Amino acid sequence: MPTEPSHVRVYARHIAPHGRSCSTEFHGLPQRRIHMGAIMEYAVQCAVKTIRERYFEPLTLDELAHAAMVSKFHFLRSFRRITGVTPGRFLSAIRLHEAKILLLTTSLNVSDIGAQVGYSSTGSFTRRFSESVGCSPTQYRHSGHGQNPPVDPGAALAGEGLAEQREMDLLPEAAPRREQEQGCVTGVVKSPGRTASGIYIGVFESPILERTPAARAVVAHSGQFRIGGVPEGTWYVHAVAQGAHAGAAGESTAHQLLVGTAGPVQVGPGTDPIVQMTLHPLGWSNPPILFAFPGEGAA
Questions:
Q1: Contact by Cβ (8 Å): 48, 284
Q2: Gap between the Cα atoms of 288 and 179, Å rounded
Q3: Cα separation, 296 vs 299, whole angstroms
Q4: To the nearest 10°, the Cα dihedral for 94, 121, 205, 147?
Q5: Which one is the CATH code of 154-285: 2.60.40.1120, 1.20.1250.20, 1.10.10.10, 3.30.420.40?
Q6: CB atoms inside a 10 Å sphere around CB 68
Q7: Is 245 helix (H, G, I), strand (E, B) or coil?
Q8: SS3 of residue 40 by DSSP
Q9: Which of 52, 78, 162, 194 is most buried, taking the most CB atoms under 10 A from its CB?
């Protein structure tokens, strides 16, 4: 008689006592037929929950793998496959996101906020924040209160059409490159419903929405897009829009952010990738958006 894999036995023993059977936890599959992919997804989900709840602690890869009850090798590989980033990068993104919230909702100074979200050095915190968000913590705090909003990629979300394009023109341009080193990315972006803004599409270095894009475009609604002037290299294509829901008297009001990602894609001589993205709300496996955009402090 075939025996169950050790991971199935471990999860059957540890999950069922917490109020749900294994078959319920893993989408109705019989216990002996639980797919290892579902088990690893649950392990990663537990790790993400730990990161979100204990981001201010000095969490280590060994600790997270142990909490998920899997080997460090399998945990790291599965975490990257499901979230797109390493546990360390996910943790850093959560810390910076929490710092953004504290900057807008408290009067704590920058040094205290850095310490509160897990940074032992104010200099390290300020540097990482500035690199990822596109402005310093102090600038971000002021922008959240309507004072001198920083110029950053998210400015495209403040309006539509020509207004959006004018704001995009204020963004710092990438360093000039020779024409033969530039390419383009084309594709289709879809939204499951109406959006309260145009759709901002950028070409970024990272699977996390952070830093200034190498190239960008804005489309008014779902459909085709083309981004030119993309430097040669490996890139991630991110799309962001504000969702909408029916407000009073049927008015459309801003709701949650919708995101879509494609990549990595390779841009080079004779290589112009074509991508497809479908916008969706941020889920448990998505790292938070780090770059700043007008109005997020008031949301």
A1: yes
A2: 34
A3: 5
A4: 80
A5: 2.60.40.1120
A6: 23
A7: strand
A8: helix
A9: 78
